[in-house]
Specification:
Elements (H helix, E strand, L loop, with lengths): L10 H14 L14 H11 L5 H20 L4 E6 L5 H7 L7 E6 L2 H14 L4 E2 L2 E2 L17 E6 L9 H15 L4 E7 L4 H7 L6 H16 L9 E8 L4 E8 L3 E5 L2 E5 L4 E8 L3 H10 L3 E7 L5 E7 L1
Parallel strand pairs: 1-2, 1-5, 2-3, 2-4, 5-6
Antiparallel strand pairs: 6-13, 7-8, 8-11, 9-10, 12-13
Bound molecules: N,N-dimethyl-L-histidine (AVI).
N,N-dimethyl-L-histidine binds next to strand 11.
Length: about 325
């Protein structure tokens, strides 16, 4: 017998469909970069992090390797270390090794299963530290768990230059919510990508092997496969360039011809050459970022960079 009950879509895919339809209905068209990270997109991002052209990950890692012991001493004992977008918590391990008597580590990530697996491994490697994973979208309000031993303050770790993917007003809002969360005595350790020559920046987002292009265009595959949309992915290309005025890399998907995307009953018309915006990646000076953070109630305390000043890790206090 046929099951005629309407299928119930998961809330996450409803949000995806809603955001895609809304974004493609706008002028100019846009798609939110948070949807890059399905299974294939996350694997492609891992590949990006290993590319020669993508200096960000290895440079931040080198800064952490070199200065983690100094960073650890800036964070007072009794802290609850909360990491925003913890992923595999790789950089955090260096920090955990140098923290003075932390009360607990709270990795926050949207991917529940991956988070639980990472937490299990951390419990084995750090048997004296309470590991309290939280599945949440950190751009929305979420509560922190209670640790067995009460924390005196909160230290937020936000590596990876992820803050660069937010527009300045959104970044300021997010930093304000972090500063409110930290409480007095607390602080934020954050990774930011620095302003530099255009060639280095544009190469990082236009790699020779085409991994960033595949990562960007994967968003169209997702829409095609998950929303059962009629899209010819081959008829689009990746575009990334530096906008000097706004100090940011801008990423788009360009339509190679006049065409139509169909999702259910709705059609979206594209002209040849039309751009769909997918991501901004803001680049900061330490002074510029400090001014933004100051507006959100956080004051620059210390900063660490690599010798070429490609990337910086800042400690900001409430
Ligand atoms: C996650 N985020 C910091 C990356 C960036 O560099 O803005 C995302 C990315 N987009 C293309 N390449 C990498």
């Amino acid at each position: 017998m046929l099951n005629t009950a309407p299928t119930k879509a998961a809330p996450r895919s409803i949000a995806f469909q809603h955001d895609v339809m809304e974004g493609l209905g706008q002028v100019p068209k846009r798609l939110p970069c948070k949807y890059f990270y399905d299974k294939r997109g996350s694997a492609l991002f891992d590949e990006i992090c290993d590319l020669d052209e993508y200096y960000l990950t290895r440079t931040e890692q080198a800064i952490m390797n070199r200065y983690a012991s100094e960073m650890g001493t800036q964070i007072d004992s009794g802290a609850m270390l909360v990491e925003y977008g913890s992923g595999s918590s790789i950089k955090t391990r260096i920090l955990l090794d140098h923290l003075i008597d932390p009360v607990a580590y709270v990795p926050v990530d949207i991917s529940h299963r991956h988070l639980q697996r990472v937490a299990e491994r951390l419990r084995v490697d750090y048997p004296h530290l309470e590991i309290l994973p939280v599945t949440a979208d950190f751009t929305r309000p979420f509560s922190l768990p209670h640790s067995r031993e009460p924390a005196t303050h909160c230290a937020v770790y936000f590596p990876g230059s992820t803050i660069g993917n937010f527009e300045p007003a959104e970044a300021e809002r997010l930093l304000r919510s972090i500063s409110e969360r930290c409480g007095s005595g607390g602080g934020l350790l954050i990774g930011i990508d620095l302003v530099k020559d255009v060639e280095t920046l544009e190469r990082a987002y236009n790699d020779d092997a085409g991994v960033t292009a595949a990562f960007n265009l994967n968003l169209l595959r997702r829409i095609r496969d998950e929303l059962d949309a009629d899209i010819d992915v081959q008829a689009f290309e990746h575009v990334a360039f530096y906008n000097h005025q706004a100090s940011r890399i801008e990423i788009y998907i360009r339509s190679l011809k006049q065409q139509t995307i169909r999702i259910g009953e709705t059609s979206f018309e594209l002209d040849a050459g039309e751009l769909i915006h997918t991501e901004y990646s803001h680049k900061y000076t330490i002074e510029g970022f400090s001014a933004l953070a100051a507006r959100a109630g956080l004051e620059l305390h210390r900063s660490w960079t690599d010798d070429e000043r490609l990337f910086a890790v800042l400690h900001l206090v409430v």
